[in-house]
Amino acid sequence: MKTKWWQKSVIYQIYPRSFQDSNGDGVGDLQGIISRLDYLQELGIGAIWLSPVYKSPMDDNGYDISDYCDIAPEFGTVADMEEMIAEAKKRDIRIVMDLVVNHSSDEHAWFVEARKSKDNPYRDYYIWRDEPNNLISGFTGNWPGSAWTKDESSGQYYLHLFSKKQPDLNWDNPKVHKEVHDLMNFWLDKGVGGFRMDVIDMIGKVIDDELITNGPKLHDYLQEMNAATFGEKARPGFEALTVGETWSATPEIAELYSSPERNELSMVFQFEHIVAMWKEGQKYKGNQLNVPKLKEVFAKWQQLEKGWNSLFWNNHDLPRVVSAFGNDNKYRVQSAKALAILLHLLKGTPYIYEGEELGMTNFPFTDMSQFNDIEARTAAEDLRKAGVAEAEIVPMIRQVSRDNARTPMQWDSSDNAGFTTGKPWLAVNPNYKEINAAVNLQENDSVFHTYQKLIQLRKENDWVVLGDFELLNSAPNVFAYLRKFENKQYLITVNLSDDEQEFKSDFEFGKLLIHNYETENFAETSGSTFKMQPWEAFAVELL
Ligand code: TEU
Ligand code: CA
Fold first, then answer.
1. What are 361-373's pLDDT values in tens digits?
2. d(CA 273, CA 296)
3. Cα distance between residue 30 and residue 78, in whole Å
4. Cβ pair 201, 247 in contact under 8 A
5. Cys bridge to 306: 259, 398, 453, 464, which one at CB 3.0-4.6 A?
6. Is the model's pLDDT at 528 over the cut of 90?
7. What is the CATH number of domain 467-542?
8. Is 245 a catalytic residue?
């Protein structure tokens, strides 16, 4: 099977508001990203997943779009977007845009028209009912807040699975499909390399059955979209990268999305390894690394036969992995590297979230006023209503808040970490003087250089891309696995704990491929039982 470019590449996610400001208004922008393309080329990534930069009232920081074919002025212009696509292309980097079409903003012209009257031609671009049903929204507070808001002028309720400023589009209406295909082609014609698709598992929802994800027509809609926009039929030879955000996906469902012969998507973001680490399965109870559970989940997903995996620890909705699963204190560098080695040598396409390659950590929030995110604010309201003591609310939100991922990128030790010459829209993490790109680039054994090496390993070795996966028995907190390709085997072993762990191996070690500790006598440890240092990780070719 000819491998696609996105099977050999690593994708870098940029949250544009927080990456690099170029005009001193404290908000990241497209010209800022352009100024940092050389850095990304040095890291070695093959594509940028750009979180939304379209026109938006920014109720959900751009995941509420009011014009899909224009750029939010705080980020720049369509011309800036075209310049960025061209500049990235010169560096062999594709731009993957964020497609948010489960819902639009309530300020989109379609919704402004739709709410004018029941017989308006845009009315059934959205979902209206005379009475609400039990569907709930994650962003309206009073958990479970209703997903319905009454529109006074018509007396009907409209559906919004997210905030009331994010009305759900009606995918039962073929005109909505056409509008979406047209906006996708607008950007594809400008040279974007594909799309990340926001909560795409929801577009087949069946309202009256209160069925939200994996509705009966979901895959029909995706096959129709593929054929009309990015797929082989519409653009022969164009290898789009399309990745669906699907919190509900199981491996079986993931194969429906990503089996090549189905002509749907390249892959999906599944979240089982994230949710499995939530204490009592509840996000706001906090994260608890459970290595045996992590091994079980990854091993299950690595057995995907016909489809293709994404691999990620972080995105703009998740706390920083070195704080959530690693040790951002005594073993910050080692644990950041260990988590990278573990993830990047699995089978699938790895995604790096801005700053993850620096070992950036969660932010030390102390007060609700420091949070920007609508989800954090509504979660605080819900916890308060549930009777949680005020003093406990910030500590509960702090450890998992999406704001942890959205504090400004830490470039250097100058003011505001080099992110802006103005007042940053969200405070810079006070640890920026120690943790920043400049320091990482200077140190040969930095987190950055570990990521750079892993990206290079993937580019140079088919076994990383195509090798079979086999989980090995090991100590509970040691994640050890084999990759097998063309009668060669490779051992990846990671100690995911603060303690020394024993690793029994009867393998004969060959060439060391990557190691996050400088252990001189490594060769002597092969073929025996040896101790692994806290958070030690290595990959070795086997003889
Ligand atoms: O996120 C989908 C989503 O459900 C997340 O908000 C998730 O539920 C939550 O973060 C887990 O605690 C997508 C986007 O990634 C997110 O930024 C948007 O807020 C959301 O959709 C609405 O567009
Ligand atoms: Ca700016």
1. 999 999 999 999 9
2. 9
3. 10
4. yes
5. 259
6. no
7. 2.60.40.1180
8. yes
Same fold, 109-159 and 467-542: no
Average pLDDT in the 71-99 region? 98
| Token pair of 198 as six digits | 């926001």
Contacts of 320 (CB under 8 A, 6+ apart): 314, 328, 355, 356, 360, 361, 362, 404, 405
The tens digit of pLDDT for each residue in 192-241 reads 999 999 999 999 999 999 999 999 999 999 999 999 999 999 999 999 99
Closest ligand relative to 18 C-alpha: 2
Q: From the CA of 162, how far away is ligand 1's center (Å)? A: 8
Q: What is the mean pLDDT of residues 177-190?
A: 98
Residue ranges around ligand 1 (CB below 6 Å) = 60, 63, 100, 138, 162, 198-199, 245, 247, 283, 316-317, 375, 402
Q: What is the mean pLDDT of residues 7-33?
A: 98
272 as an active site residue: the answer is no
Cα of first residue to Cα of last residue in the chain, in angstroms, is 27
For residue 94, the CA-to-ligand 1 centroid distance in Å is 24
Q: Which atom of ligand 1 is nearest to the CA of 318?
A: 10
CATH of domain 5-103+174-453: 3.20.20.80
Q: Does the pTM exceed 0.70?
A: yes
Residue 29: nearest ligand to its CA? Answer: 2
CB 110 within 8 A of CB 123: no
Enumerate the domain spans of the chain. 5-103+174-453, 109-159, 467-542
**For the chain, counts of helices (H) and of strands (E):** 17, 22
- CATH homologous superfamily for the domain 109-159: Oligo-1,6-glucosidase; Domain 2 (3.90.400.10)
User: From the candidates 21, 106, 245, 356, which is the catalytic residue?
Assistant: 245
Name residues whose C-beta falls within 8 Å of residue 295's C-beta, 6 or more positions apart in sequence.
Answer: 471, 479
Spell out a b/e string for 8-30, using b for 16 or more CB atoms within 10 Å of the CB, else e. Answer: bbbbbbbbbbbbbbbeeebbbbb
Pick the catalytic residue: 21, 198, 373, 403?
Answer: 198
For range 152-177, the mean pLDDT: 97
pLDDT given for residue 529 in this prediction: 82
